[in-house]
Every structure is written in C-alpha cells, then in structure tokens.
Amino acid sequence: MKAIRIYLLGFLFIQGFCFSQNIDSLESIYSKYYETALLANSPEGRYVVLNHSNTYGKDDFELFDVKMDKGTKLEKHLKFQFLTGNLLLMQNDDHCRILNLKTGQHHQEDGRYIFTIAKKSEQLILYSSSTKELLSMDYDGKILWKQNDIGSYQFDDKNDRLIYNSGKQLSVRNLKTQQVKTFNHQNDVQWLSYSEKKIYCAEIKATKIELCTVNLMSDQLTRMTINSPQGFEFTANLNSYLEIREDSHLLLPLFAKSKLSDKKDPELQISYSNRNDHEKTLNHHMGIYNLKEEKWDYQPDAKQKLPVYRFLNDKGDFIVFDQSNDVVEEQQNVVLDLNLTLDYGKSSYLLPKKRINDGNYLWDRSTEQFIYFDDKRWMCHHLTDREDHELLPLDIEGWENPNNNGLTYSPEVNPIKIKGRSAIMLSNQFDYFLIDLKDHQVKRMTKGQDQQTRYRLQLSKDHYPRSSWNVKFPEIDLGKEMLFKLFNTTTYDTGFATYLYKKNKINFYRHGHYKDILPYKNGSLLISYFALEPFKLTIVEKGQYRIVYESMKTEKKDFGNAKYKLFQYKTRYGTANAALLYPSDYNEQQKYPMIVNIYDQKSHDLLLFIQPFLTTTFGFNYMHYLMNGYIILLPDLQYETGKIKDSIITSLEKSIDTARSIASVDEKNVGVLGLSFGGYETGLALTNSNYFKTGVAGVMVSDLVSLSLSYSEFDSMPNYRRTENQQIRMRDMLFENWNGYLENSPIYHMKNISIPVLVWTGSKDRNVNPFQSKMFFLGMKRLQKKAVFLEYLNETHNILLPSNQLDLNVKTWQWFDHYLKNRTPAEWIRPITQ
Residue 325 class from Cβ within 10 Å (0-12 exposed, 13-18 middle, 19+ buried)? Predict the structure, then answer.
C-alpha cells in the first residue's frame, strides 16, 4: 500500500499538477483516514457509541462492547443516549427508537419529537412542535399517555410531574401514578412556569398581562391583571425572560414605547459621535412586579437607552448599568457606573467606574461585600464603610487573562461561588484558591504552578443558574467531589484529577493525552487523541489502566516516520513554545522544505488529531504536507503591546532558528502561511524578514489605519476596538500613536518585499473587509512585484463551498510545491513566472 501511495503521489506531480487532473487518485488515498468521536456511554461503562467520520463521506456509527472487545454497526442517528445499561435511545428527525442491547429488539415511535428523560419514573417524554402532540412511554416502548393540541409544557424533574397547557385548560400530571389534575382558565397562554407549590401561566398583551396561578396545595386557581408601566409595553417575544422568584416577584421584560414607535426613513440612517450606535436597536428593559402586594417594586428608567440587568443571586439583588454611556465603544469590557440594587428594588448603591463583563464582579449578600477585578487584582468593596482593599495576598500573581496581552482587563477564570457559605473560589493561570469572605483567609487548593500544570475545574450546566437574568457564575458544593482538567504548559501533557475538599484527597489520571473523562459506576473511561495519535479509549478501574479501543490502528502506519517535537525558544520578550512536525518520509540525512504556519498560539494545534484532506476552510492541512515531504513549524509568537511588528519578527525568526538546529530544514526553502490575524502576521513577516522564499496570506489585515477607522459587520462595533485592545494590541488610539500604526502595518513596508506572494480572500467577508487583502495585492502590483490574488466571489471569512475549498487547498499546495520544491508551475501560476 505504501508503494502504491508513493507512486500515486509522484504521478500527480508529472508536468505540473492540474486542478482537474487525477485529484480523485489522491483523495481516494485520503478517504481511508478518519476521526473518531465518542457519542454516548452506558452507566456501567460496558458499552460506548462511536462515530467514525471524514470529509469524504464516511459517517459510520458503532456500538462497541468494552467487555467483549466487539463492535457492532449501528444505523445513523442524530442523537444517542443510554436509558439503562442495556437500553439505548436513538433519535432521528423522523423517529425515536429504544434498542435493547441484550435482545437486539427495538421499539420505534415515528414522528419528529423533542425528548426528555424522566429518570425517576423511567419514562420518555416526547413532544412534536409541528403536530402539538405530547406523550410519555416507558422504557419498554409502551405508550402510557398521549394528548394532542398541547401549546406548551414543562417537566418538573424534581417532583416527577408534567405540566402542560391545551387550549383553555392547564394540566398537572404525576408521571409515576399517571394521575392528572386539570384547571380551566380563560386566556390564551404564551408563558408557562412552575415552582415547588404553584403553577403559573400568562397571556401577554402589549398593555397588560393576564396571570393565572394554581396553588397545588389547595388546588385553587386565581387570576391577576398586570398593567404595563407608563411608557412601556410587554412582549411575548422574550418570554424566556419572564420569571417568578420566591413565589412573590415576577420579572418582566419590557420595551420602551418610544423605541417601538420610532419612524425611520428606510433610505437614511443617522449616526451621532456622542451616541452609542446600539441606541438604534430595540433593547429590552426590566420591571419587577410584587404579586403579593400587587404593585411594581421596580420600574425601569425610561432615560436609560441600553440598560443591562444582571442578578447576582436568587434573593433579588442585581446590577444595572447603561451601555449607552459608552459613547466611544473602544472596549469590550468598558468602565461604567454600576448601580447595585437590593431586595428587588428596595435600595440601591452607586458603584462608580467598574468593568462591566460578567466575570469581573460578584456580590456576597451575607457580608455585604462587592468583589471586583481591577488592574490585574481582585479587590473588595465593603458596602457598610465604603472602603476598598486587596482581596488576596500581593505575592500571588497571574490573575488576569493573558490573551491579547491582558488588554481585555478580565480575570483568567470567572469566580466560583461556594454553596451554603460566604466563600468563593478564584483561579490564576495555574491554581485555585478558596477565599473565606468573612475573615478573608486564603487556602490554596491545587499545586500546579510548581510543575507548570494548569488546573481547570470541570463544570456542568447544573452548576450554573438557569435564569436568563443571572450572571452566569457557577456554584459548587465543597462536600462533593471536584474534577479538574490538567494541562502542562511546557510538555502539553493532559489529564485529570479528582479532589475531595474535606478529606484533602486528590487522585490523578495522567498517563496519556486525556481530553475527556467519563465516570461510570465502578470506574472511568478516558478519551485521548493528539497530533499523529488518533482516538484512543482507556478504561480505569481500581487504579488499573487498560486500553480498550484504538482508532485507525492499521491506517496510521502510513504516517511513517512523521513525528512531532515540542520545544521552547527564548527572546528578549521571554520564553515561548513551538511545535515542529516531521514528514512521513523523514531522513535526517536529507534536507526538507519548511512551512511556518502562524496565528497567535499555533503550537496548540498539537492538541488535536486531524486527518489529511484537501477541503479545509482556510486552505492548509498540515497532515497533507507531512505526507508530502514538508517540515511544518507551528510557533507561539510573542507580542509587545504597541510594538507588535518587532516582537512578531523577533520571535518568528528565533523559532525558525531553533527549528533549524533541531531538524534537517532546507534553509533556502522556507515558506510562511497564515489567515486572518495570521494573515496580518504573514504580511509583517513578508515585509520585514528575509527568512522566507514565499508566503501565502489569507483574509489578511494590511493597514491598521483604515482598519481602525472602519466597521466589521461581524460584530457591528468600530474596529478601533480590535486594533487597540484585541489581537493587534496597540492599546493607544490611532490619533495618539499615528507613527506606531504605520510602523505596525504591513502595507507601509511593501518596498522590502523581494519574494512572490499568494493572497486570497472571500469577497463577502463580514469579519475582515476584503479591501485589506486587495490593498496588499495592489501595492504589490504598483511596485511591480510578483503576486497572485485569489478572490472567491461568494465566500466569506472562511471558504465554505466544497469545490472552492478544494480549489484553495490545491492552489496553496501547488504554490508551495513550485516555490519551495522547484516543481513545474501549474498553469494558473505560469503568468506570474513569465
């Protein structure tokens, strides 16, 4: 097989590689490689459902018996979930099927359903939004109950009951006994909710809400009319924001009538330099209605144009701020005045000039402390004495998120609340610390920094509040076992650790590149994959590790001598990582061309296994090049705020120098490639370094001046946010550092280019304006330098049409083969060589 592969690859290059000539031969080779994913596992760990897929149409499903070391093919389904150790639920667009793994028999319910599993009563709840049919069936497939014309429903898993509305009738069904209570109301229902003792439903009109409440203790139904506050209207479009708290307070989204009644000329849009552009959008306010006293406890302020509300707990304490005060819109984590409002509106306190991102603050009601993140430190504000002080010892560093040189001004990890205590967990870039908010005692819970190992607490959706209004802070119970994911920032070894706080006991799982851990009754399943290492499944029981499944055991032999090496290099900016990948035919006695693929922390590409294929959305698959005689370098580049060009070139060249000392690199045939921010970096490399023979820049940024003073449709915010505080990292605005913007723009250094360049873009790119790439090409053309410009007329920031993906991947390959391997140029390259 290897000889055939070499012959075919050689044949494809004879007299130039044409797009339409023999491409099928290469793709037939690549089509045998695939990626494996685990979709579901049984509670006892015996069975797993696997999917094997690739870009060439392979999409196979397998039931693997871990105990018997046996796989069975499954029909394709969209979703798999085990109901018990031997019952597998499979769902498609047109049916739900329960498969008995012991007998091989199945029961199928035809129809397009949303399903919910009621574990306590061992039932499956199915609902069809198209037919309005709601039903429940047991795990054996027997239908226990069915009803049509169901407008809405809720499943109360705690009490194992189903609440649903049909016409003018509200029903509550006990799933265990199938007993049902029905209540007649007089209105249409757009919203349905429940608490422990009550059921709520509402008809929502612009000026009033008709609310019906069922008291489950007395079976009494009451009705209430709530009129909208003056100047505001209700809306049913935001019913996920309607919420009952403590059976007494109804949270309501509202629209300002002035916004609803605005008449705008469709041919004209007016913007003002002293207004936030988002003021033009329809933004919802919040009101809080007291159901017991039948009055408004909190009414929105009509003067606020873009109010944001964030509940800090379940007791009625929330933050309000007005984003319209951010008239410049230069940051994504802007400093604004926050109003801390307590007890659903009974009192409020002004907290001036705080960062607004959810992770930057929290409130502890018991100790009346407002915790916030400022200038890379965690601070504490006491509401009683209005004093601020440092929350943590000064000798603990690394609290800030290092992305974009820390210019997001946000913490590395959001705070974690502790259930039942005035305490929180905070994390720096390695470890977690428990802080008691009563006495401010600090306890270090993990010890990762000493081994350069990053700990990250694994959280599920159950740890987060369900409310649409709440800040999404997780809450954990210290009495339960915690699970941490481990990542060594030097070696990239990965694993897990379980931790019991009360016993101070920790167990490690780190014998491989473990990406996921799936605990079951008597052990755990560990999933691993890495660069050049396909999917592997390991079972751990009683401290013993056993590999039970390996994907592509035969096919991966074709990778031959391909290998990777992770190394560190040093510059005046510090130490950084880089990954070096060797070709499958590597022989240290030979010299190989090298492609340097750049984009921020590119070495992290090692953390994934990818199959070789020629339809990536950005034109480059390093596995394809490894199998075709190239060395690949993936460096983590270094950045100095405001001087990104110098730091990029210094770190890029140093990483290449180090790679040359490690592997047999042909120093005369080194290319560089990047897209988006990597395209910007590639532009800087091509214009400021003589290390490269050619380069490929995709959807690039070439001019920081025009970029800064433009918009991106992608997030509809001014691009000076991107140049100042995001990846470009200029920090200062254009008008404070004009020369710096010119110095760090590739286009103003184009006279330095002496090598051919391939530039590509999608003409409908909504992220980076295609004109950025066109400017670079036009500069090359005006200077009479060699460049080819590929413009895909109906593509965006990534190439999505398969035929265009193939075209870009092949053209990129042909380009590098011509300039780095001296291959005969493809027909489309020939004009630039003449």
Answer: middle
Alpha helices in 164-224 (DSSP H): none
Strands 70-74 and 59-65: antiparallel
Residues 483 and 496: beta-carbon distance below 8 Å: yes
655, 578 in Cβ contact below 8 A?
yes
Contact present, 318 and 341 (Cβ < 8 Å)? yes
Q: How many angstroms separate the first and last alpha carbons of the chain? A: 40
Cβ partners under 8 Å of residue 575, min gap 6? 568, 569
Q: Is residue 769 part of a domain?
A: yes
Structure confidence by residue, pLDDT tens digits, 669-715 = 999 999 999 999 999 999 999 999 999 999 999 999 999 999 988 88
Q: Model confidence at 739, in pLDDT bands (50, 70, 90)?
A: very high
Is position 194 within any domain? no
The CA-based angle 579-583-585, given to 5 degrees, is 155
CA–CA gap between residue 535 and residue 542 (Å, rounded) = 23
Task: Please state the domain count of the chain.
Answer: 1
Give residue-wise pLDDT tens across range 375-407: 999 999 999 888 999 998 878 899 999 999 999
Confidence (pLDDT) at 558: 85
Strands (E), 25-175: 35-41, 47-53, 59-65, 70-74, 79-82, 87-91, 95-100, 106-110, 114-118, 123-128, 133-138, 143-147, 152-156, 161-166, 169-174
pLDDT at 612: 93
Beta bridge partners of 319: 310, 340
- Phi, psi at residue 255, to the nearest 5°? -110, 140
Question: For 600-618, how does the pLDDT look when each residue is reduced to its tens digit (9 = 90+)?
Answer: 999 999 999 999 999 999 9
Mean predicted confidence (pLDDT) in 88-107: 95
> CA 628, CA 760: separation in Å to the nearest integer?
23
Question: Beta 694-698 vs 665-675: how paired, if at all?
Answer: parallel
Per-chain mean pLDDT for the chain = 93
Q: Flag whether pLDDT at 8 surpasses 70.
A: no
Specify whether the CB–CB gap between 642 and 626 falls below 8 A: no
Class of residue 309 by CB neighbours under 10 A (exposed 0-12, middle 13-18, buried 19+):
buried
- pLDDT score at 4: 35
Q: Which two tokens stand for residue 365?
A: 């009601």
**Owning domain of residue 662:** 585-591+640-833
Contact 788, 759 (CB under 8 A): yes
Q: Is residue 467 part of a domain?
A: no
How many other CB atoms are there within 10 angstroms of residue 465's CB atom? 16
Can you tell me the mean pLDDT for 570-598? 97
**Alpha-carbon gap, residue 727 to 639, rounded angstroms:** 9
Which tokens hold the place of 169?
A: 């009738």
In a domain, 668, yes or no: yes
Structure tokens that stand for 704 in this block:
């920081």
Pick the closest to residue 727 from 752, 701, 705, 706 (CA basis).
701
3-class state of residue 228 by DSSP: coil
Rounded Cα distance between 76 and 88, Å, is 13
What CATH number does residue 674 fall under? 3.40.50.1820
For the beta carbon of residue 106, count every other beta carbon within 10 angstroms: 15
Beta strands in 785-826 (DSSP E): 787-792
Residue 11 has pLDDT above 50, yes or no: no
